[in-house]
Amino acid sequence: MFNIVLFGPPGAGKGTQAVKLAVAYNLEHLSTGDILRAEMSKNSPLGQKVKNLIEKGELVPDETVISIIGEKLRNAGNVVGFIFDGFPRTVEQAKALDKMLADEALEIAVMITLEVEENELIERIRLRGESSGRTDDSDTSIIKNRIRVYNEQTATVADYYKNQGKYVPVSNMGTIDETFSLLASEIDRRLQIAIKS
Predict the structure, then answer these.
(1) Measured distance CA(184)–CA(166) in Å, rounded
(2) Cis omega (within 30 of 0) for bond into 10
(3) Which positions ≥6 away from 106 have C-beta within 8 Å?
(4) What predicted TM-score, i.e. pTM, was given to this entire model?
(5) d(CA 114, CA 11)
(6) pLDDT digits 0-9 by tens, 100-153
(7) Strand 28-31's sheet: what is its strand order?
(8) Does 14 qualify as catalytic in the annotation?
(9) How many angstroms separate the CA atoms of 102 and 140, rounded?
(10) Which residue out of 134, 144, 162, 166 is catalytically annotated?
(11) pLDDT at residue 35, as a whole number
């Protein structure tokens, strides 16, 4: 099983690229953002709690996200692998993911970080907010807070995977297709290494 973490700040294009990669490599796409927004649309107790946090640009607690991902992994059935989009966001989540996968004799093959300049991130998120109606994407102060939270709390996850030799940075300042091509070449290289070993 081939498992990928697609990483990067808000607005880096993780969702767009994760969908394309999931189709290209027949992977199960696990997006914590999509899962949490689905709970919000159902107005469930979890959804209400999450909505309050997201509207402030803050992170959902580790134990909540870990529980959700754990349930998805257990109920995934027979899949080729997973692409994790928006998870893990903290080192604790990364450790929990490693443990959940290890319990099934699995691991993360590669963690790819999409790199985008901050001004570009803000503009992309604002445009996304205009087209999607997402309130957390429309307010510049909330957007900047989300990026600040990412830099303070989430960027350290990259170091966790660097220490495992699984970290790969990829620029996403080009077109969607250009970035996809860069991602695919990195994944193909890792797949070849996995086949040889």
Answers:
(1) 16
(2) no
(3) 1, 3
(4) 0.86
(5) 10
(6) 999 888 999 999 999 999 999 999 999 988 887 777 788 888 899 889 989 988
(7) 28-31, 82-85, 4-7, 110-115, 167-171
(8) yes
(9) 40
(10) 134
(11) 85
